[in-house]
């Protein structure tokens, strides 16, 4: 696309240490990779489109982080160890003021997770980034969505709701005046994929998913695939002080936590007999996890506050209330 201007050479080649399992990366028609023995390959693709997933004038470093972090989060949700990434980049023009910070942030995060860029494609058109990540899972192990059982405990990593509050700030300039607006906006873009947690859960969790569409929607995928129900204690939801102050009301903050998308935290289920092992398995991850409820028989999906059932609407995201 870019003729004699050697964009790929300048921005994408030789920006990373060579992994031992990469025989040939950028520069030829294909990448060539060594597949280690006794592992399976987990593969996931995600696209970010300007105007849909981020505003075209968003900080390019944050866009790069979001694109790669959301892809690596899918590997984390399977318990996979990230290894390789390829990138299809569609650019309206060669804007070096956009490309330079985009690439710097991309390689910084890729290096942190020891993920090597192995190839890609670059085309002209409306701004969009498609990444395909690949990682390793030990044979016969993976965190799937269909193995949650009645009685298992439901956990989430980190804190929930900040990403939705950050999106409020991005979409409504009036909200920028709030003292935590800048921090919440930053959190919307700069999530932390929970790779170490996912790996540590391989022998412990019965199911896992990453929260990209909102806790209730994503937990809903586990419930549907596992043919079970759930009870969630909304007072147990982990909330940041910034979120609580930003929305001003606890029950609204809880509603944000239930519905906020693009969090890239993990939601997972743990059988009673593995609960004791969970803490020591996660000790090295420096990641907070919180038990928010329990798997129930199919057909029961309830939210409770101090033991009382709440009236709620999953579809309408209505402000939920105790039944009168
Ligand atoms: P081809 O015509 O065979 O598709 P390209 O000219 O598109 O080759 O790409 C040349 C080389 O640069 C390939 O090895 C390709 O993987 C790599 N490449 C192109 N665009 C990107 C990108 N955005 N990120 C990483 N590698 C890229
Ligand atoms: Mg090409």
The first-level CATH class of the largest domain is given as Alpha Beta
Mean pLDDT: 93
Q: Indicate how many domains the architecture comprises.
A: 2
Beta strand count:
13
Gap from first CA to last CA: 63 Å
Q: Low-confidence segments, ≥5 residues, pLDDT <50?
A: 314-320
The CATH fourth-level homologous superfamily of the largest domain = PurM-like C-terminal domain
Order of helices and strands: HEEEHEHEEEHHHEHEHHEHEEE
Major sheet attributes: 7 strands, mixed
What shape does the CA trace take? Answer: globular
Number of helices: 10
CATH architecture of the largest domain: Alpha-Beta Complex
* Rg, Cα atoms, Å: 21 Å
Quaternary class: single chain
CATH topology label of the largest domain: Phosphoribosyl-aminoimidazole Synthetase, Chain A, domain 2
Small molecules bound in the structure, each named once = adenosine-5'-diphosphate, magnesium ion
Give the proportion of residues in helices.
Answer: 25-40%
Class from helix and strand fractions = alpha+beta
Beta-strand fraction estimate: 25-35%
Protein name: Thiamine-monophosphate kinase
GO biological process, one term: thiamine biosynthetic process
Enzyme class: transferase
Family: Belongs to the thiamine-monophosphate kinase family.
Which descriptors apply to this entry?
single chain; 324 residues; 60s Ribosomal Protein L30, Chain: A; 31% helix; globular; binds adenosine-5'-diphosphate; nucleotide-binding; thiamine-phosphate kinase activity; PurM-like_C_dom
């Amino acid at each position: 696309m870019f003729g004699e201007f050697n964009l790929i050479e300048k921005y994408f080649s030789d920006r990373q240490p060579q992994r031992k399992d990469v025989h040939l990366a950028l520069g030829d028609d294909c990448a060539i990779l060594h597949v280690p023995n006794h592992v399976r390959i987990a593969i996931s693709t995600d696209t970010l489109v300007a105007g849909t997933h981020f505003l075209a004038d968003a900080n390019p470093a944050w866009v790069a982080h979001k694109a790669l972090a959301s892809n690596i989060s899918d590997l984390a949700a399977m318990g996979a160890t990230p290894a390789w990434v390829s990138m299809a980049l569609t650019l309206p023009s060669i804007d070096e003021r956009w490309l330079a910070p985009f690439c710097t942030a991309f390689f910084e995060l890729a290096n942190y997770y020891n993920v090597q860029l192995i190839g890609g494609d670059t085309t002209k058109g409306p701004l969009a980034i498609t990444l395909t990540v690949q990682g390793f899972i030990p044979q016969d192990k993976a965190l799937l969505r269909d193995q949650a059982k009645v009685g298992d405990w439901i956990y989430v990593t980190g804190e929930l709701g900040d990403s939705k509050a950050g999106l409020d700030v991005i979409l409504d300039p009036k909200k920028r005046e709030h003292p935590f607006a800048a921090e919440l906006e930053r959190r919307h873009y700069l999530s932390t994929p929970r790779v170490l947690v996912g790996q540590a859960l391989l022998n412990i969790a019965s199911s896992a998913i990453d929260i990209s569409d909102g806790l209730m929607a994503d937990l809903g995928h586990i419930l549907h695939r596992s043919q079970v129900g759930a009870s969630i204690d909304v007072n147990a939801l982990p909330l940041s002080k910034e979120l609580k102050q930003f929305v001003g009301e606890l029950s609204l903050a809880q509603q944000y936590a239930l519905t906020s998308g693009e969090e890239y935290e993990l939601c997972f289920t743990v059988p009673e007999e593995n609960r004791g092992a969970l803490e020591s398995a996660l000790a090295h991850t420096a990641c907070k996890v919180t038990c928010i409820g329990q798997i129930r028989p199919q057909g029961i999906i309830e939210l409770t506050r101090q033991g009382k059932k709440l009236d709620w609407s999953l579809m309408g995201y209505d402000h939920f209330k105790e039944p009168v």
